[in-house]
Hints:
Layout: E1 2-13, E2 16-28, E3 33-37, H1 44-51, E4 59-64, E5 67-68, H2 74-81, E6 85-89, H3 100-110, H4 115-128, H5 144-156, E7 162-166, H6 174-189, E8 193-197, H7 201-204, E9 209-214, E10 217-223
Parallel strand pairs: 3-8, 3-9, 6-7, 7-8
Antiparallel strand pairs: 1-2, 1-4, 4-5, 9-10
Helix pairs in contact: 3-4, 3-5, 4-5, 5-6
The structure holds adenosine-5'-diphosphate and magnesium ion.
Magnesium ion binds near residues 44 and 45.
Amino acid sequence: MIKTVNLQKVFTTEEVETTALNGISMEIKDGEFVAIMGPSGCGKSTLLNILGLLDNPSGGEYHFYGTEVAGMAERNRAQLRKGNIGFVFQSFNLIDELTVYENVELPLLYLKVPAGERKKRAEVALERMNMMHRRNHFPQQLSGGQQQRTAIARAVVATPKMILADEPTGNLDSSNGEQVMNLLRELNNEGTTIVMVTHSPHDSGFAHRVVNLFDGKIVTENFHV
Ligand code: ADP
Ligand code: MG
């Protein structure tokens, strides 16, 4: 379980202060599928990045599976991220110089998984995302749907507790988007916690709970039964 208490995030650039998060208290249980919605600039990505240990809050508490991480140094945060969290982004964020296979293998290299085991696990993830036939291609040689399936393979290869997805279907046509949503649902059905930012009411329909943000605050929460 993860839990935040009165989370704050202030960005300061050129003496301008922006309050991106202004008192977010929320709890996400293991196995939940939560969608975060709200207008552009309301703090969705900032919240996701903090939940995913990519960034620290400016104030408040963040309990990550029993560990208080709000003030943790970048180096320790990165360590905790490995193997615990998988990220999927709207713009895929694959490494252009690496093949599909090498992109997917990367988290296992960071975790120092032995070579034989790496190959096995990378191939299972690629197989599952129906990307084995493109394993030696480079990201630029793939369609958007294939790039996102590669990114999901990379996100799941180290069997994380949580997958965080920031508008994962934002750059995809509806049929590829549907495929990505079905994959996320399948992973959730197997027990992976999913937190997803989306603008799409269709995509948020896959979630158990929709958290609506406005101006860095939670304004409403809707539960799907
Ligand atoms: P959303 O994802 O909901 O569109 P963001 O979380 O990206 O919104 O941004 C929330 C607010 O914080 C915006 O006003 C944005 O301009 C600001 N912001 C986000 N990241 C940074 C940053 N790295 N530096 C300065 N301001 C930022
Ligand atoms: Mg955003």
